[in-house]
Amino acid sequence: VLKVSVTVLSFKSDGGESDSESSGVPQWNNKQFTDLSNYSGSTSLSSVSGSVVSVYNSDYSSVDIQGGIQFSLNYVHKLREFHIFVVQCQNLAAVDTKRNRSDPYVKSYLIPDPANLGKRKTAVKKKTLNPTYNEILRYRVRMEYLMSQVLNLSAWHNDTFGRNSFLGEIELDLSSWDFNDTEWKLLPLKPRVYLQPSDFRGQLRLAIRFLPQISHSKNIPGSGEVHIWVKDCKNLPLIRSPTIDPYVKCFVLPDISKKSSQKTRVLKRTANPIFNHTMVYDGFRAEDLKEACVELTVWDRDRLANHLLGGLRLGMGTGKSYGVQVDWMDSTAEEVALWRRMMESPNEWVEGMLPLRMVTAAKNTWK
Ligand SMILES: *[C@@H]1O[C@H](CO)[C@@H](O)[C@H](O)[C@H]1NC(C)=O
Ligand SMILES: *[C@@H]1O[C@H](CO)[C@@H](O)[C@H](O)[C@H]1NC(C)=O
Ligand SMILES: *[C@@H]1O[C@H](CO)[C@@H](O)[C@H](O)[C@H]1NC(C)=O
Ligand SMILES: *[C@@H]1O[C@H](CO)[C@@H](O)[C@H](O)[C@H]1NC(C)=O
Ligand SMILES: *[C@@H]1O[C@H](CO)[C@@H](O)[C@H](O)[C@H]1NC(C)=O
C-alpha cells in the first residue's frame, strides 16, 4: 500500500498560442528526464508533496537555463490588485547562439488557476540577453485567494517563425510571501519541474451531473442525486505483463461503508478499457457537494491480489469535510474545476478527461 499522496501538476496547455509549452500533454520519453534528487529549488516544490521530482528538458531547445528576473510584488488594497513589477532580466540564455542574443519576454501565471485568471505578459524585447521591461503585470484578485496561489514567472524567447523557447521559470509560494516587502528581488531562473514519468498513470474520461430534485431517497427530504458516468480510460500503466484487467471503483467520501462502494465490471486484457458505466448516489443536498468527495480508483484485477493503477478525487480540495481536517480532500485544480462545473450547472452532464494520479485509496480491499 502506497502511503504517498501526490498532487499532479497540471500539464494543460494554455490554448492555441505560439508558446512552446502549448503542445498539450508532454510526450513522455524517459530519455528526457534526469533524476534531480539533488535539486535545491526552495519554493518550486511547494505544490508537490511526497513525490520524487525530476526535470523535463525541453524537447526542441538545447537552451541552457541561466540568468534571473528582477521584479517586485505589491498588493494594492485600494484597487484589490496584485501587481508584479517586472524590472528586467539578466544574463538570459542566447537562443540565437551565432549572434549571441534572444528576443525575450516574461510571462506570469497564478497556479492552480481555478478562477481562470490566465496569463499576463510583458512586451517582447528584441536582440538582447539583458532586457529592461519596467512593466506591471496586474491581476484583479482578492488577497485571500492570492494567498493560496503559487506565482509562476517564466521567461521566453519569442520566435518569429518557429516555436517560442523556454528560458526558465521562477515559482513563489504566495502563502508565505511577505506582501509588505515591495523591494526589488533578483531571483535565478530554473528549469521546468514535472513529475516523474512513472507518475503518469493514464487518463480517465468521465461525466458527472447533479440532479437537485429527483431523489428517491426517503431519508433526506429535499435531497438530490449525483450521477457518475465512467466512460473510458486511456493509456493505463501496464504494471503486469503482458496486459491488465482493469475495473473502476467508486466511493463517495466521507462514507467508506460498503454501500458507498460501486464498481464497474472487469474488462479483460486492455490498457484502454471502455466502461460506459453510470453510478448513482442519492441523499445529496446542494450544500453536501462542498463537503463530499467522489473517489474513483482504477484497479487491475489479478488472481491473487488487485493492484491499484491510479485514481482521482472530485471535490472542492479544501482539506476539510464538515469542519474536520481530512487528507482525502486533496483534489487537484483540474479535479476541482470539473466538480465546480457540475455544481454550477445542475441537471447537466459535465465531461472531463482527467489524468490519473497516485492516491492512497480510502479503502482498498476487493470485496
Ligand atoms: C554574449 O553576450 C553577453 C552580454 O550580452 C556576454 O556577457 C557574453 O560573454 C556573450 N557570450 C558570447 C559567447 O559571446
Ligand atoms: C509555469 O509556467 C510555465 C509557462 O507557462 C509552464 O511551462 C510551467 O509548466 C509552469 N510551471 C508549473 C509548475 O506549473
Ligand atoms: C511573437 O512573435 C509573433 C510573430 O512575430 C507575434 O505574432 C506574437 O504576438 C509574439 N508573441 C508575443 C508574446 O509577443
Ligand atoms: C504589513 O503592514 C501593515 C500596515 O502597514 C501592518 O498592519 C501589518 O502588520 C504588516 N504585516 C507584516 C507581516 O509585517
Ligand atoms: C454507452 O451506453 C449507452 C446507454 O447506456 C449507449 O446508448 C451507448 O451507445 C454506449 N456507448 C458505448 C460507446 O458503448
TrEMBL record:
SUPFAM superfamilies per UniProt: C2 domain (Calcium/lipid-binding domain, CaLB)
C2 domain location: 65-189, 200-329
Pfam families named in the record: C2
Assigned keywords, A-Z: Cell membrane, Exocytosis, Membrane, Repeat
Protein's GO biological process: exocytosis
PROSITE patterns recorded: C2
Localization in the cell: Cell membrane
Location (main, coarse): membrane
A molecular function (GO) term: neurexin family protein binding
Stored SMART domains: C2 (SM00239)
One GO CC term, this protein: exocytic vesicle
The keyword NAD belongs to this UniProt entry's keyword annotation: no
CDD domains per the UniProt record, alphabetical: C2B_SLP_1-2-3-4
Protein name: Synaptotagmin-like protein 2
